[in-house]
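Batch manifest line 250
LIGAND: D-malate
JOB: complex structure
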Amino acid sequence: MSDLNQLDVFFSVQTFHEDQVRDKTVVISDVLRATSTIVTAIANGAEKVIPVGDMGEASRIAQSVDSDNYLLCGEKDGIKIEGYNLGNSPLEYTSEAIKGKSLIFNTTNGTKAIKKSLGADELVIASFHNLDVVVDFLREKERDIVIVCSGWKGRLSLEDLLLAGNIVYNLKGGVMNPEARDGAKVAFTIYEKFGNDLESVILNSNHASRLKELVMDTQDISYCCQINTTRVLPILKEGIITNRHVEKTQ
Ligand code: MLT
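JOB STATUS: finished
ARTIFACT:
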C-alpha cells in the first residue's frame, strides 16, 4: 500500500458507521472464533459461507437453497444454536463435515461485523491461520484499508486487536509513522507489547474466559492462535464468502 492511503483499525462492530467503510478494503478480525472458523471451513473445502445477521435471515436463506447441500452453522452467546448442524468451534469444521457444502453462518459478533461492512469495495476474512496471505493481499492495495475488530457486544476483544496489530505491524515493516491513524497506532503498539506471547495473552482474554466456562476446555483457543497454517483467503462477493485463489509466494 502507498503512504497516501490510510490504514485504520476499528475496535468493535458498534464503534463505526457503515459510511466509514464504504468503498474501502475491509478486513474482518474475530479470532475467537468466527473468522478462525470461516478460514478453517474454506481451507477444509466448504464451497461457500453465507454470513447472516440473525436467525430469521438464516431460515429465509435456508428455504431458498438446495436443502441437500447446506448446513446451518453458528452460535448465540458462544453456544451452538438449537437445531443447527454445527456450532462455532473451528474444530467441528473438518473436511468430512463440510466439504462441498454451503454454510449459512450466524454468530454473535463476527457475522454482524461482516454484514455491517457490506458497502466495502472488497472484504476479506482474517485469522492468525491465514495472516501472511492477508498481509500479501493488502500490500498490493492502492486504496484505504480498514481492519474491523468484531469485539464482543460493543466491547473490545484483545485477541481481535492483536491480530489487527500483527497485520498493521507487517504492513508497516515494524515502523509506525507519526501521521498514522490512532486506531492503527493502538493496534500496532498492543501487538509490539504482547505479540511474542500470543497464546498466553489470548488465553487470559475476556472471551477466552467466557469460552472456557462454556466449553470447559481450551482446545479452540490454542487452535485459533496457530499462525500461517493455510494460504486460503476468504473473500466476500455479493454476500457470499469463497476462497480467492492465491499462489504461494516464495
Ligand atoms: C462471535 O461471532 O461473537 C464469536 O465468534 C463468538 C464465539 O466464540 O463463538
